[in-house]
Design goal:
Blueprint (H helix, E strand, L loop, with lengths): L8 H26 L6 H26 L3 H8 L4 H27 L4 H32 L9
Helix pairs in contact: 1-2, 1-5, 2-4, 3-5, 4-5
Bound molecules: fe (ii) ion (2 copies).
Length: 153
């Protein structure tokens, strides 16, 4: 695709860096779930710490996106993206609530193997939803800035 309007490398670099950070934080949660050994209080605390870290970061990330920036700019450049951006932003509360449920379940449930497996599975579901969300954002930015960023896998 030819580029009519060159992208702003600062904004685009920022989007990619933010999404990579989130991906890495999700990987940290996954590896703490997958760490070898029995279900010890330390292991449970490590998973919860990584979940809270991700939650804080995600909340800041969503706030930034909602306050303006690359999504708003994509719509300004290409108004037909407005419905897609509205629907992307509407997903934020549900994603945060989904992560909050994983945290709350793990904090309130007894430290048994069943609750651990349930939380692990619920986090995998959250990760899939989050990955789909970020892909939609990357696609909007790619289209809005009319630039092949190599974001789509
Ligand atoms: Fe988002
Ligand atoms: Fe995002």
């Amino acid at each position: 695709m030819s580029s009519i309007d060159r992208s702003d490398p600062v904004i685009l670099g920022h989007v990619l860096a933010e999404h990579r950070d989130l991906f890495n934080l999700m990987l940290c949660v996954r590896s703490s779930f997958a760490a070898a050994g029995g279900l010890t209080p330390d292991r449970r605390a490590a998973v919860l710490a990584s979940l809270h870290h991700l939650r804080d970061h995600l909340c800041d990330h969503f706030n930034q996106e909602e306050e303006g920036g690359f999504l708003e700019e994509s719509v300004a450049r290409m108004p037909r993206l407005s419905a897609a951006v509205r629907s992307i932003l509407c997903q934020h509360p549900a994603l945060l609530a989904e992560l909050d449920r994983v945290i709350a379940d793990l904090e309130s449930a007894p430290a048994d193997a069943a609750s651990w497996t349930r939380a692990d599975h619920a986090f995998e579901m959250f990760s899939a939803h989050m990955t789909a969300h970020e892909r939609s954002e990357n696609a909007v930015v790619q289209e809005g800035y009319n630039e092949d960023l190599g974001l789509m896998e």
